[in-house]
Amino acid sequence: MTAPLHDTGAAGTAPTDVTADMPAHRIEGRSPGRIAWMRLKRDKVALAGGVVVVLLVLVAVFAPVIVSLLGHPPNEFHEDRIDPLFGTPTGKWGGMSSDFLFGVEPVNGRDVFSRVVHGARISLLVAFLAAFVAVLLGTFFGIVAGYFGGWIDSLISRTMDLLLAFPQLLFIIALISVVPNKLWGFTGSGVRMGVLVVVIGFFGWPYIGRIVRGQTFSLREREYVEAARGLGAGRTYILFRELLPNLVAPITVYTTLMIPTNILTEAALSFLGAGVKPPTPSWGQMLSKAVSTYDTDPTFMVIPGLAIFVTVLAFNLLGDGVRDALDPKANR
Amino acid sequence: MAARGGPPGGAGRLRHPPGATARPSTVLAYLIRRLTAVVVMLLIVTLATFAIFFMIPKLTGTDPALLFVGKQADPAAIEGIREKMGLSDPVLVQFWKFVEGLVAGRDYANGVDVTHCPAPCFGYSFRNEQEVWPVLTSRLPVTLSLAAGACLLWVIGGVAAGVVSALKRGSVWDRSAMSVALAGVSLPIYFTGLVSLAIFSYALDLINVDYEPLTQNPGKWFESLILPWITLAFLYAAMYARLTRATMLEILGEDYIRTARAKGLGEGVVIGKHAMRSTMTPILTILGLDLGALLGGAVLTETTFNLPGLGQGAVRAISDKDLPIILGVTLIAAFFIVIANLVVDLLYAVIDPRVRLS
Q1: Does domain A42-326 have CATH number 3.40.50.970?
Q2: Best exposed site among A116, B216, B226, B274 by fewest CB in 10 Å?
Q3: Locate the ABC transmembrane type-1 domain: which residues (chain A) (predicted)?
């Protein structure tokens, strides 16, 4: 699940090999990757975002452990915590107590804390995997379009335009509504998650594809590409060994900025009933339930909303920091 | 309008050889080419939507005719509907008939039982056998009201906040505005919407959010849309403020701004005339894309505030598996997106003198 992060993290230092062995004897040679890392370390706000992101990933990975220590199983009903007359949680603040840290859900009394913690899994898993799909497709088609030009470029560019012109959200919910419950041996939530990942990723790749195409366009005329060609390097070698390492910076920036968008999309789809199926907990789904109870139990609305907000904000802060750090024009 | 251009030749997106002027015939040719592209684009969107909604049920064994008449219908009724709606034709034939119906209207015939559906014919709702087009047109004004008001708010608010932030870079105003903007892009519409409902409609009881059309009751129309407008505009204003600030900062560092200042122009003219003009170009690009794609945001806003617009209609249709309505809304949305893109491209030529139509 954290694969894209590790990938980009490791790849972010890749340009080191390209520039670090410049003749710099006593002076410490700073590779672009190191300069970026130093800048990022100085950016307190981005670091704070990064710390929150790491914490969230840990929460998602260890959700069952956390819940077994601090909460109740996510699908366990606690009707004794519910006012039988109004269906609202008993006690103040949506039934918050040391036993139920974030209170209980109206009507059935499920533990909100454990549902929010488990919701983080769905949210992050879908967002990361969809970003991975988008980066894979976007990088491949972008680099191919930019390097070969001509009709290949026209075809890929028009396809990207077309995808960007699609009413995505509508299209995705409609698509999900016709996808069956059983597909390729998966059932229930597994199918939905797979479809979510593929569809969100599929509609996301043109954004990365455009950037990569533009960059490739200018890079392919550089001397080092010509040199590689002169030395008899094949197309695949030039594309993936010469060009790709130099595209790592923009790809990293757009990946970090794409993850929060994906989280919002997943939550929006769940909100509209096109996310993972209940009873699997997800944040958007909790909010859509809160639509009918916001007047009687505002706590139940605020908790999942804050979960989405904090997560997206943390990724945005980190993404902005990464962008500033990797920007060659910045001279802080 | 587009024929009036700057000096011949020029830099930027110029495609034809230097020296070529934008003659009226070139503009006409450009328009024709673009309009053809628009039509092709819409056809492809229709085909894709069509294929997905009519093929996937087939692959998974759900019969569209069953969706139409309901599961308990007798075989004869199902066969009748299938015949009448042409559901047993190959998908491409169905697609062709659908497009034909859009352009010229079509007749659904089943022996003597003929139903005429005038152009633009989007077919009949699976649920209540209403024509789709009137359903769409009755919902469109709600979405347009929502979009227009929100757009006005966010462009004015976002651009103004961005410009002031750029001019007073690093000030308290800049920092607080950008913090609010960052929070704004990180908040889901349906959450801010719910919170505003809880505060203004429920706790304070200030605003009644039951929608009424503008033509019936302008006061209530306005009242019911205030919260949705602000909610939707807040998200976009935040994005626009960030974008405007970044663009403005970049442009203020350009040589021609220095030149303008050096030749003694007042700061108002330098910013208002020279810098703003270039700043507007990327804003306009995004605006075109956003206005077209606004239906996505409208889906969430309309669902949250229970507004009877297109987005809400689509969500209901989806839970009803009412394919013709979904297809209709998707097509209308795609139509707005391509048209918005076309208008933006034409406006470029007006705002940015470096751009020639090619």
Answers
A1: no
A2: B216
A3: 120-319
